[in-house]
Write a structure and sequence with these properties.
The protein is α/β, with parallel strands linked by helices. The chain is 38% helix and 20% strand. Helix 4 crosses helix 7 and helix 15 packs across helix 17. Its cofactor is Mg(2+).
């Protein structure tokens, strides 16, 4: 292990990670058990290059994100691209996280040195703009340096493929083919890799085209909608501001503390709009300004969160006291990804029903069945996919797709990945139309319950110290499958480990409950978590009765799932 660490140190060009690794080696030589354990964690394995590319904590060693690992990944990707075509091109983007610009420039120099025509985005920009550039420029591939909504100390490396892949994220078998090339590169010091500064900067016409096409989704929205916007210390504001203005929306009230990129994410414990506390400043701004809506992006603006005012006299989620001044969210609630997906999917279906070739609605397996119900009502094709937009974006004839983790694709002709800016435009246009008609987003949700059905969902997550602990939990559930979840009987279990129907092998268990409800269990792809998705529906009675039925079943299933998982732990 010490030999591997010293070999890594000898090729590391980054003074910060060199100093960090030198200290660990010195302390380990001196018999420091904690240093030895830390060194083992960094060198016992390496960050795997998979369908999510690379993602991990910054630091020295192959099991961290750093300049050595990025150089190896860039050279491996270059080798993969040159093996596929004689003159490949790549476009590279980056966000505002720590070292994102450094990793992007390293990638550009190594790609150019390998003979790949290389284009580098001119500044830090949202992930959807890079995904757009892959299609707009017709490149062979795209690289986005981002860790999306991960903790501040993380960074990552997201890869798209052009050509027949249409600008979608890599999936199997491209991920394993690229990983094999990276392994070959890693057998030699990165100093042996040729570098070149003969790469080009992308000009602003590409960004202008993204802005123009995205703004066009709004049509001519009525003015008068007042909304709050937060970029969550990410890179969404510059592009979103231009899009909102071009689309004709009134200027938003901004959360100034979170508006500009800051890799420290100082106002949030976790830079994810789904996390408790992340929207507290937005709630405050919304109350102060009398806003109709809150629009929030995650740090690379590929995800969208929406919050709406509660009806007078309604308690905030998780609270019984509407007058509790200590509750930052009082008077407001964030919509779930499934609620936003259902509304945007319904809006898409209403547009599509009049077309000769309307296309397909799609959602990931763990998302709510609500979108499938929309497709049935409007006689549209529908497809379930595995988790992740690398699958959603590849559905044939896709017209709209989403996943419950705040990811939406409303304009597949432009971008083949989730796009929080396009989704914000579509949602703002809907909200503007509703307000002009004397209605609201809350009323639209009630109308969905009445016309299509009430769908309720929730998640349960069990966090572990290390990802290596997750397989044992999944194995235990397979070897001792539950007969009940709480007091509700299990009817059958679909095990995706050997493939299921049209789906390739995946570490997923889908548990069907009496009455048609379901529970889906899978390990997280990016964090040391077991994630459980619970869904139920109500289709009888009034909208309020349907909602009560669905919410009640979900609450019972959630209690049963928590009891089951604690028993497994």
């Amino acid at each position: 292990m010490l030999t591997a660490a010293r070999n890594w140190l000898a090729q590391d060009p980054d003074p910060a990670t060199r100093a960090e690794l030198e200290q660990l080696i010195t302390d380990t030589d001196a018999g420091d058990a904690a240093a030895r354990a830390e060194l083992a964690d960094r060198f016992a394995s390496r960050l795997a290059f998979g369908t999510a590319g690379l993602r991990g904590e910054l630091g020295a060693g192959p099991n961290r994100m750093n300049r050595v690992l990025v150089a190896q990944a860039a050279a491996g990707l270059a080798a993969y691209l040159t093996s596929r075509e004689p003159a490949p091109t790549v476009v590279i983007g980056y966000d505002g996280r720590m070292n994102s610009d450094v990793f992007a420039r390293d990638t550009a120099e190594i790609m150019a040195g390998a003979g790949v025509r290389t284009l580098l985005m001119p500044r830090l920009l949202p992930t959807p703009v890079l995904a757009f550039a892959v299609r707009h420029l017709g490149t062979s591939a795209g690289v986005m340096v981002t860790a999306s909504h991960n903790p501040p100390r993380d960074n990552g490396y997201k890869v798209y493929l052009g050509g027949a892949d249409g600008g979608s994220q890599i999936n199997t078998p491209a991920d394993s083919d690229i990983a094999a090339q990276i392994e070959r590169v890693a057998e030699h010091p990165i100093a042996d890799l040729p570098r070149s500064e003969r790469y080009d900067l992308v000009d602003d016409t590409v960004i202008d085209a993204y802005v123009e096409q995205t703004a066009g989704l709004a049509g001519t929205p009525p003015r008068g909608l007042r909304f709050v916007y937060t970029a969550m210390h990410g890179v969404g504001w510059e592009t979103s501001q231009r899009v909102f203005e071009r689309a004709g929306f009134d200027a938003p009230v901004v959360v100034s503390e979170q508006l500009l990129p800051d890799p420290a994410f100082p106002t949030v414990a976790f830079p994810n709009p789904e996390e408790p506390g992340a929207l507290d400043l937005a709630y405050e701004a919304a109350r102060d300004s009398g806003a109709d809506l809150i629009v929030a992006h995650d740090p690379d603006a590929d995800r969208l969160a929406i919050a709406i005012p509660l009806a007078p006299g309604t308690a905030p989620e998780g609270s019984t006291d509407v007058a509790d001044a200590a509750d930052p969210a009082r008077g407001w609630r964030r919509l779930t990804g499934n609620e936003v997906g259902a509304l945007l999917g319904w809006r898409a279906a209403e547009r599509l029903q009049h077309l000769d070739r309307p296309g397909t609605l799609a959602a990931s397996l763990v998302s709510s069945p609500a979108l499938a119900a929309v497709a049935r009502k409007y006689r549209l094709d529908y497809a379930d996919t595995l988790t992740g937009f690398k699958w959603v974006s590849r559905v044939g004839g896709l017209a709209f797709g989403y996943e419950e983790a705040l990811g939406y694709l409303v304009d597949p002709k432009k971008v083949r990945d989730k796009d929080g800016i396009s989704a914000a435009v579509d949602f703002l246009a809907m909200a503007s139309e509703l307000k002009a008609a004397g209605s609201s987003v809350a009323e639209r949700l009630r109308e969905f319950d009445a016309r299509i059905g009430a769908f309720a969902s929730t998640q349960v997550s069990l966090r572990f110290e290390k990802r290596s602990e997750l397989p044992a939990i999944m194995r235990s559930l397979r070897e001792r499958p539950p007969a009940h979840v709480g007091e509700l009987r299990v009817e059958r279990i679909d095990d995706f480990s050997g493939g299921f129907g049209p789906f390739p092998p995946s570490d997923i268990l889908r548990v069907w409950i009496e009455g048609g409800s379901r529970v889906i269990v899978r390990p997280s792809g990016t964090e040391p978590k077991i994630k459980v998705y619970i869904d139920a529906a109500g289709s009888d009675g009034t909208a309020e009765e349907r909602r009560a039925t669905a919410d009640g079943i979900v609450a019972r299933l959630e209690a049963g799932v928590r009891q089951l998982l604690q028993g497994e732990r």
